[in-house]
Amino acid sequence: VEVSLVALGGDADRDGLRALAEATGGRSFFPADVRDLPAIMAREASRVAGGTTVEEPFTLAAGTHPVLDGLDRTALPRMGGYVVSMARPSAQVALRSHLADPVLATANAGLGRTAVFTADLSSPWSHDLRAWGESGTLWVQVAQWTSRRADDAGLVIDIAQDVSGAHLVIDAYDAGEQPLTGLRGQVTISGPEGESSTLALVQDLPGRYGATFVPARAGRYVVTVTMTDQASGREYRALRGLYWSGILERLTGGVDGALLAQVTSATGGRVVADGEHPLREGRPPQYVDLWRWLVLAAALGFIGEILAQRILPGRRAARGPGPDHAQASSGHAA
Is the pTM higher than 0.70? Predict the structure, then answer.
């Protein structure tokens, strides 16, 4: 049995764990951050299952994805096999196998999109898929979904935060600034740790759609709004950044006065009004004796006066008469 080991913390017996993993043909990992665990586990699972294929007939199972729009999801073709893979949490799986493994999946890559097909379209595995009457439509929609340039000219996104979460309000307008109704929309939220979630938009008013989500942790979030006009097929997409601090005082717009009143009432205190200085009120006056500083200043002044009278005249005598005095003496001699 191959054993791979993962240890956290500086007190782990790294030499012993490394020897155990090497003895069984496995590997050892000592990450410095617990957030590295998902990547390590995914990498090891991919290594163990690397090159593993499933070669047996099965019928494709449909997920929820725009690339399947207009297709008969109840009459999907059969496949003869695929390469075992694992979908990231942020990916959207359009087609699955009978073992719930992804066969066709998509994901957002930065501001772009990507799609992955885990079988070979030209191999015998995909014979029935190629012969399927809607196969061409499927791949055309996959190509359109990955390469389509979204139009965000008609979307205005506003995000308000409070203690219950982040509230999204999206206003959709056409070129004539008329509200767009009946759009199908969703919001994809990418979190600070790379996690992703999807919410459906609900129309509240003509041209206005909304959704609410509760961030799991403080950090930066990217909100991607995608709206589709089902009649024309036109897609609108816009991005908006969001920073969730999680600080309740900031989200409520100030101090919770009701809570402070309850606390002070229970403890026998009182709420201090603006402009009051409770730490200064009721304190007795304090006096500082200045006579020591005054005596010191007088002594220093007296010493300075003596030095000025005794030293400065001696220096003048040593330097001799000044230029004016010498000139006057010369004139008198003449």
Answer: no
